[in-house]
Write a structure and sequence with these properties.
The chain contains seven helices and seven strands; from the N terminus they run ββαβααβαβαβαβα. The chain is an alpha/beta fold and 223 residues long. The chain has a seven-stranded mixed sheet with strand order 1-3-2-4-5-6-7, sandwiched between helices. Helix 1 packs across helix 7.
């Protein structure tokens, strides 16, 4: 699998052993995320932002039909993308930049947040998972989590939502808050350090700030 369509933004800190934050993003917004992290006085890290993804396919764990008339079906190719990320993209990125991270954090917004959580079940490469306004409405995800084993390397998880996200006419999206809270309970029962933050607004409000808040928390709580 080769992916020359992806866009990478790298923001390197002062030490190659700093935590490496891997952020899958809908758009090229690395500079804005970095700025928000500065405002939050987040611990230093090496940050890579991956964008220009095949959003509805790369980040979804299994296929579903389109969720609205104007949408397209999700093809569920997260396993393929995760394999590429772990086997090719990250080794190349770390090798070319001399990075030797003591810990890796995977983060994302919306479907990117869902993918971050899914990755925690599929690989032992990440110690912290960050899901900002994550798409936990995704059909079957809670059942998947309950039937599968979270990697023992995962020791902290950040979850957030906007307080209006469940107030949608789309019935497929309406369970997002209930499912997110249920997933929080699932993690807490397993003794995973977990936080859930509720933000003001719908899914499209303050996305960069919400994402940065999650990353900042993870950088302070991965141990």
């Amino acid at each position: 699998m080769e992916r020359d369509d992806l866009t990478l933004e790298t923001f390197l800190g002062s030490d190659p052993s700093l935590p490496l934050v891997v952020l899958n993003s809908y758009m090229k917004d690395g500079a804005a995320i970095k700025e928000e992290l500065g405002k939050l006085q987040a611990p230093e890290a090496n940050l890579v932002v991956i964008s220009n993804l095949r959003w509805d396919d790369d980040l979804t764990p299994w296929p579903i039909e389109r969720i609205s008339q104007n949408d397209t079906p999700c093809q569920g190719k997260a396993d393929e993308y995760l394999a590429y990320l772990l086997e090719k993209l990250l080794p190349s990125l770390e090798g070319n930049n001399g990075l030797k991270p003591k810990v890796r954090i995977i983060a994302g917004y919306s479907l990117g947040g869902l993918f971050a959580l899914y990755a925690g079940f599929k690989t032992d490469r990440f110690a912290s998972l960050v899901s900002a306004s994550g798409s936990l409405w995704y059909p079957g995800f809670l059942d998947f989590a309950r039937k599968n084993r979270l990697s023992p390397t995962v020791n902290s998880v950040y979850l957030s939502l906007g307080d209006k996200e469940k107030k949608t006419k789309n019935r497929i999206l309406q369970p997002v808050e209930d499912n997110t809270l249920a997933f929080r309970r699932f993690l807490e029962e397993k003794g995973i350090k977990t936080i859930f933050e509720m933000n003001h607004g719908n899914h499209f409000v303050d996305g960069e700030r919400r994402m940065a808040k999650g990353i900042a928390w993870a950088l302070g709580n991965w141990r």
